[in-house]
Amino acid sequence: MRKVGIIMNGVTGRMGTNQHLARSIAAIRRQGGLELRDKSVVMPDPVLVGRSAAKLEKLAADWGVERWSTNLQECLADDANLIYFDAQSTLLRAEAVRAAIRAGKHIYCEKPLAGTLDESLDLAREAARARIKNGVVQDKLFLPGLLKLKQVIASGLLGRILSVRGEFGYWVFEGPTPAAQRPSWNYRKDEGGGIILDMFPHWQYVIENIFGRIDSVSCTARTTIPERVDESGKTYPCTADDAAYATFELEGGVVVQINSSWATRVNRDELVEFHVDGTGGSAVAGLRECKVQPRVATPKAVWNPDISNPIAFREAWQNVPSTSPEENAFKIQWEMFLRHVFEDAPFPHSFLEAAKGVQLAEAGLQSWKERHWVDLPELKLN
Questions:
Q1: What is the pTM assigned to this prediction?
Q2: Which residues pair with 237 in a beta bridge?
Q3: Would you say residue 38 lies in a domain?
Q4: pLDDT tens-digit profile of 252-301?
Q5: Is 378 part of any domain?
Q6: Does 256 map to a domain?
Q7: Which candidate, 256, 292, 305, 339, has a CA 20 to 30 Å from the CA of 210?
Q8: CA distances to 107, 154, 290, 333 from 143, in Å
Q9: CATH number of the structural domain spanning residue 59
Q10: CA 101 to CA 93: how far, in whole Å?
């Protein structure tokens, strides 16, 4: 068994603790490590890094981790640490990733890779020159609902896809009671907050991996809640967008519309749903579930506002069953990255792909500001 040192920076945050430490690295450790193709086993040996010694010490004790540190440079200088992982807030990430590149570490990090497209591309180029393995979290692709949707599309049941309609969001409480479910920096523009920068990188990889390349975007957004209460109980002004309404035109003519909001109350089966219409049928996919309605089972609706509709539309949909065991999406991608490092297995979710997500976010912000469609040129490192 080979131990692999993994620097986990920013892991005291919600996503870092729950998804990356508890449900990924700790889960891999509990299963006895990751078995490679040659039957050897690699065992993650994390070192938790952050600014608060008290938080790190408690987190390490909670999850049986032996190492923690408030000194990132010392951790980067330790040859036993082969991989650097970053789950810090957006504007802190680029500097730390650049230091990890200089230290020769393989790097896996949360999205967005950086706060701007130029900085994201710079990091992608530096990583390529350093010949280090690099990757970004694109967890939605490994969720059961979207995996089922990909199977449905591959089967041909939908025929030619015409359009996609996405709805994402929930009500984030303003505080103090109930307390907000998201950190206050999400609502401060100068700290890298905003729903466009947070969610458009997700929409980019979901759309392009399932439906096709995005050619252009039209977007408008709002800061709907002017004030919120932060973690210390203080009221602060919200300066970042918390709701965005976007239309994406794809190569080949498919139109995708996605509403994203932290100021909406949920009246759907899941917190995000994608309704896909095609000539042969339709599908509705969420995080966990997917249902379909083939053309042959589509009820013949007639518009008549003068009577109650006799058709129970929701009953005409069929659930897509699970055909394989369901694992945590973050854990799946962590194992993929470890195989990429140790087996040179394919890992398409590179820093260049991460830059495409930031490109879409910048285009969305530009469209909102200038009130017009914005085209997305193809990105290349050279």
A1: 0.94
A2: 227
A3: yes
A4: 999 999 999 999 999 999 999 999 999 999 999 999 999 999 999 999 99
A5: no
A6: yes
A7: 339
A8: 23, 17, 11, 11
A9: 3.40.50.720
A10: 12
Residue 47, CB half-sphere, CA atoms under 13 Å: how many? 24
- Residue 90: band (very low, low, confident or very high) from pLDDT cuts 50, 70, 90: confident
Statement to judge: residues 291 and 339 lie in one domain: no
State both tokens at 3: 């131990």
Query: Do residues 239 and 284 both lie within one domain?
Result: yes
133-167 pLDDT, tens digit per residue, is: 999 999 999 999 999 999 999 999 999 999 999 99
Place of tokens 């979901």: 206
Per-residue CA distances from 255 to 140, 203, 216, 373 (Å): 20, 13, 10, 13
Q: H/E element holding 331?
A: helix 329-343
**Which residue has 């896909």 as its token pair?**
276
Show the domain range for 166.
141-326+361-367
Contact 35, 7 (CB under 8 A): no
Q: Is residue 377 part of a domain?
A: no
Helix 351-370 vs helix 195-210: crossing angle, to nearest 10: 120
Tokens of 34: 């990751």
CATH number of domain containing 296: 3.30.360.10
User: Does the bond joining 377 to the residue before it have cis omega, within 30 degrees of 0?
Assistant: no
How do residues 165-181 score in pLDDT, each as one tens digit? 999 999 999 999 999 99
Q: Is the pLDDT of residue 380 over 90?
A: no
User: pLDDT > 70: what percent of the chain?
Assistant: 100
